[in-house]
Amino acid sequence: MASSNYYDVTEWPVGNPYEDIGEVINSIIAHIKSRQTETDVNKGGKPGAVIYIPPGDYRLCTPVLIDISYLKIMGSGHGFTSSSIRFNTPENEWADLHELWPGGSRILVDIPLEADDEECKGAAFYVQRSGNPRISSVEFADFCIDGLHFIEDGSGSGYPENTYTNGKTGIYVASACDSFRITGMGFVYLEHGITIYHADALTIHDNFIAECGNCIELRGWGQASKISDNLIGAGFKGYSIYAQSFGGLLITANNIFPRGASSICLDGVTRSSITNNRLHSFYPGMVVFRGNCSENLVSSNHFLRDHEPWTPFLGIDNGLDDRFGLLSISGNHNSVIGNHFSAAIHTQNIKPIGATPVIIRMVSGNGNFISNNHVVATEIHAKTSDSCFSAQVDALLTTEASEPLAVTTVLVEKESLQNTILDSGSGAQVVMDMTVNAFRATPTPGA
User: Fold this and answer.
1) What are the tens digits of pLDDT across the range 14-52?
2) Are residues 190 and 169 in contact, defined by beta-carbon separation less than 8 angstroms?
3) How far apart, in whole angstroms, are the C-alpha atoms of residue 19 and residue 10?
4) Nearest to 345 by CA among 362, 323, 369, 366
5) Which InterPro entries match (predicted)?
6) Which residues constitute the domain of residue 300?
């Protein structure tokens, strides 16, 4: 027996999904609501539905409004491929490329926007419902949301396709939500990939979110959520992962690659964990705690800081100098334990000239515990290339160094007191007031 709660966008009689899939999905949601009106029928009544998007290209001109629980929108492939590589390949070579655009079950976000439109107006999927209970168990799985193009942003950067600006958002959740799941998705060329307010028990897992101005933004406040096993990489103006006023957030097993202004930025986040991630950045400020982040754990992560090797983005950075720190902490009673830091930096590129780069910087707060972190700092003369893939692979595999690079492994500012620093740098590498902080140096071989 076929389920009445399963919908295929290509078989729905209202609208044309290839011309405007937004109109089609909105019509399906209206139909679900018209059928599921009773709140209590045999201890049920509103089971929700599945909306299926087969592989193919579907233009979206009308934002989808989701205001029902238990809705799953799913496709058959996240379809991610690098639009940035294609747009930075000479146009006369495009005819020889195997494909030009992302694929799979692909949504082409083509919403008409004005320059002064609210941010939410550019959302392909807009989730909002007032009243109680909170909207719950909305799922997005296995399809691609493609912003198509970036536009000139007035910065004079030269090439609009590299601005990470277009006013478009993949998924925008505006109201308090519970147990949402975003899995197996592809997000590309959106100014904001995922923006969610007031999330509870949120899962963002196993997605490919890259070449977006910002990838994941958890705003307002939230609790008890996880960001796990994703491949993520924002643009130079935005965040790969941002969370605001969150408690109990788990960020684990993600591969976060350049070129986000921050790999992870936490603002007023407490009792959360950043563990077992691979973090790669071309700039300082890889992980930033601000707004009194407290009682968080940062453990077993690999931090790699090196230089941009791809010629289209040479000379672009996030505006921070090398004294800012790869990990910058403002807050109390945080633990930074057992992380590996690789700093492969050319001394000619250090900002300001002659400065000593900082790895971990305690900006303010007290009672923080930093222990058993290993820092490898070398001067690397990285090569640049017009090929994004080969340039970055060559840079990653280059370990030959002309000489060790002098760094400050831990800097404790005077506004930060009563911290404990153990085995995270030699006496010459740690800068702190030892009368108000505790310190044990990493033993130096042969000393």
Assistant:
1) 999 999 999 999 999 999 999 999 999 989 889 999 999
2) yes
3) 11
4) 323
5) NosD_dom, Pectin_lyas_fold, Pectin_lyase_fold/virulence
6) 257-447
